[in-house]
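ok so for the tutorial part 2 we go from a plain amino acid sequence to predicted structure tokens. step 1 is just haveing the sequence, like this:
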Amino acid sequence: MQVSSLSAATPVALQKATGGHARAASGPGSHGGHAPAPPAAPESIKVSTARAVKFRQEQHVPDSATHITGKDLVERNVRAMTDLIRVAPNLSIQPSNGSAGLNFMLRGVGMADLTQNNIPSVMPYVDGVALPVTVMTSAIMYDMDNVSVNPGQSGFTHGMTTTGGEINFHTADPTSQFHAGVTEDIASYGRNRVEGYISGPISRSVSYRISGMSMTGGGFQHNSQGVGYGNADIGALRGKLKWQIDDTMRLDVGGHWSTDQSDAPAGAVMVNSYGVPSSTDLMQTNWGLSRQFANAIGINPANQKPRENNLSWGANVRFTKDFSWGRLTSTSAYEALDEHELSDQTNTALAYGNMYRNNQTNFFSQEINLQSRNPADRLQWLVGMYYNRGRTHDSFWYDMSDRYASSDSGKYFYKTDYGQNEQTFNQYAQLSYRLIRGLRLIGAISHESDDRQLEGSKNP
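step 2 — the prediction. this is what the tokens look like for a chain of 460 residues:
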């Protein structure tokens, strides 16, 4: 949009008098001891603006994805991963059996995974990097640029093949000008969330962005003795570096770190078959732990609260090269998780349904794709390959002492321990051709191999 304005008014010239006063010269007949000022040239003002394409306009593109801007996330108070269900239709996100692991379901397609060693049916991606273990997503919802929720089968244009769809999180990028900001969100039950960022140039071609988030409090539950429960204790940092090497090459480097020391998710016991008194107080939950179980997993028996003790970190490098006929993109990433979680899956004061998880997982992924550049071409094409290697060592400890006390002398608990090596290799291609305006034929093919081995599985 351009707006131009041309001044047509008669100019008025001001002259500075010797006495320090301003004297107006209104025309050639003025007398003041000074020569009349020459008429000023007509003033011309030209205002130009460029109307950028809004991310929200993507909602009008004929596809099935839901696009949510970072501004919308803030205005709708989307602070945690589970808050996405308020802004994304047909999306369900629930904790898995009172753990930090999340079960994603999109349009009714998903998977309930307790073991955390399976590829989810709805895959979360952060800046193009897949997070196959959903515990890794617990502290990513800050400094977001946009989120896209894509239902249906995926893996034909990038990443891994999934049946339910994918959720793409794009964090805010470095800026060419200096920007900084801090926000604090205080809510009921002592919940406090602080988020901040700093972004700007290092040189003409290099820029950076550093952001962080801290969330504490918010626990609204209590046990039968009135001890408060449910407080969050999450901290996270993220850094991004962008190097525009030249007009055709760009290098992006990113890294993140997060810690979660929150109380584990819990529910209220309403109906059960174990003879535990139920409660009509929706704010009440309970927990209990046998001393033998606490000693076995190496925690203090005096602190029986279900809780998280998780650490997640990762780094990624993306290189982009533009040619006259296409664009080459290479993405390398490493993600690691160290999880220690104590949960009470029955929410009762008795010692049964208690679980302790010790999970160390890491993933390395490499993706290369090549695609056409000019969106005006009738023929559009894309080919690529994706490789993911995962290593997992997981231990489950279960305590069912009180339930089987009569038959096992109150010492019934067991451990499941296993390791898993996994490799996924996906090759994909997509072609589309515009027959006439508004009509385009699209075809895609994908071949994925998934190789997994369980090592040292035992259940003493």
